[in-house]
Amino acid sequence: MEALIFQLYGPLASWGAPAVGETRPSADHPGRAALLGLLAAALGIRRDDGPNQQALAASVRFAVKQHSAGRLMRDYHTVQVPGRDKKARYFTRKDELSVPKEKLNTVLSSREYRQDGLWQVAVLLNEQSDWNLDELEAALRAPVFTPYLGRKACPLAVPMAPQKVQAKGLREVFAAVPSRICDQQARWLNLPESVDYYWEGDAGDIEVQDTRQLTDDLISRDRWQFGSRREHHARLREEA
């Protein structure tokens, strides 16, 4: 098994989850859609470039080692927007706020973030892939567009440090490249003794503990359409 390993850490991260109403929740780890978006940004693939977005989605699969999901933070927002008016067109935020105050509506929302989460990601190529791991590694070292942790307000705090690894299974793959944030990261980040693994397909050396059906498999980023996929999970004690 050959994989490309990189790390994700920042003060804040927000990994999109299905949202209903005012709440914008965050998953505890990056899902497939978020990782495809990050990889596409590194490669310079624009959101409206449907063919290359779909080619990338067909080329790779991911596994995640979660050292810490971080602490949950909720950010309460109030936003004023004009009511619906078919005759009016607003090109900027300034245009929206220029209408009379009595025509402004207040929208409430609650957005979730993860504080000080630490994840490692493994990129594995499918049988038919338009990219190789060397190209993906080069892109992550010098991204075309700025990568972020789910939202533009969530920048990376350390380099992604991509590295190719050859191993018999996913646990061995991740063990070959320890995460490196700081010398005393276990203490400062309050890392638990157990880690969570999330993956697609066959892990090789990790036994499945549970499987979830998720709806984050990219179909069209233009139309914001996603299909379903199966994600396996296991929680294991981290070896010293």
Automatic annotation (TrEMBL):
Lineage of the organism: Bacteria, Pseudomonadati, Pseudomonadota, Gammaproteobacteria, Cellvibrionales
CDD domains attached to this UniProt entry: Cas5_I-E (cd09756)
Pfam families: Cas_Cas5d (PF09704)
Keyword Lipoprotein: no
Keyword Transmembrane helix: no
Organism encoding this protein: Microbulbifer thermotolerans
GO biological process: defense response to virus; maintenance of CRISPR repeat elements
Keywords attached to this entry: Antiviral defense
Record protein name field: Type I-E CRISPR-associated protein Cas5/CasD
Sequence intervals crossing the membrane: none
Annotated GO MF terms: RNA binding
